[in-house]
Structure formats: C-alpha cells, structure tokens
Amino acid sequence: DKDYGDIINYSLGNHEDLFIIDQNGKIWTQYIFDRELQDEYKLTVIATDNSTIGSTTVTIKIQDINDNPPIFIWPNSNEIRHILSDDHSQRIDINNPSSQFITDIIIRDNDIGNNSLIQLLSSNNEHFYIGFNNSLWLKNSSIL
Predict the structure, then answer these.
(1) In the CATH scheme, what architecture does the domain 9-61 have?
(2) pTM (2 decimals)?
(3) What is the pLDDT of residues 19-71, one digit of tens each?
(4) Please, what's the b/e burial string for 14-42 (b: 16 or more CB within 10 A of its CB; e: otherwise)?
C-alpha cells in the first residue's frame, strides 16, 4: 500500500466455512477436499485499508488423488449366466485361434488422468485369460 501507515485487512467474501485468510493475505484450509465432489472453488478476496476497498477472485483447483476403487459395470454377477449362454463366436483372437470370446469387461473409475487408468490382471488360470481391451476369453474353445 502506498499510503504509509495504512494497515490492510483481508477477508473472504464466500466459502468462509472452508477457507481462512490471514493478516498477510495467505489463504489456508483445514478441510480435506475431494475432487470428485467439487474440483474448483472461486473465492472472493477482499482487501480494505483505512479508506478503500479492493477485491479479486481467486480460483483454487483441487488436484486428483487415486482415492476411488474401480467399479465393474459389466458384467455383474446377475449377468454371467446370460453371457455364457450367448454365442460370441464372431470375435477371434488371432494370437490364440483356439480361444473363445466370452465378453468385454467394462470398468469405471471416478478418478481422472493417470489415476483412472485400469489394468486387469488374471491369476494363473488354465481356462481363461484377459485379452485386448479388457475382454475375457476361454483359452480352449474345445472344452465347451
């Protein structure tokens, strides 16, 4: 402040329940944020001295952390019988010609970016494997 001796007081015009602004204009919080609930906050910061008031908007962006488990969309346990009864012979795995396509597995993760990447791993199973794009295959269709 160019006016010598003026003391600047800072306050917030909104979100006082989540943020605190100190005497130096630093913004603090003790709240634990969840990007999946709200990814951005716009704060109105107000500065006053003896004779004038100024304000500005500060945007706070919440970063994503890997805090959500993958959710299986398809298949769920009620749909397994339906999948096994359908004829899926139209899909072929050129690397395993004796295999039989069963279904695509659809998974969602509410995180974003690298935190939302999902990799399916199968145990050392003698009958099934996970193929390209999360597809489930029977290793040897002759056992059907």
Answers:
(1) Sandwich (2.60)
(2) 0.68
(3) 999 999 999 999 999 999 999 999 999 999 988 999 999 999 999 999 999 99
(4) eeeeebebeeeeeeeeeeeeebeeeeebe
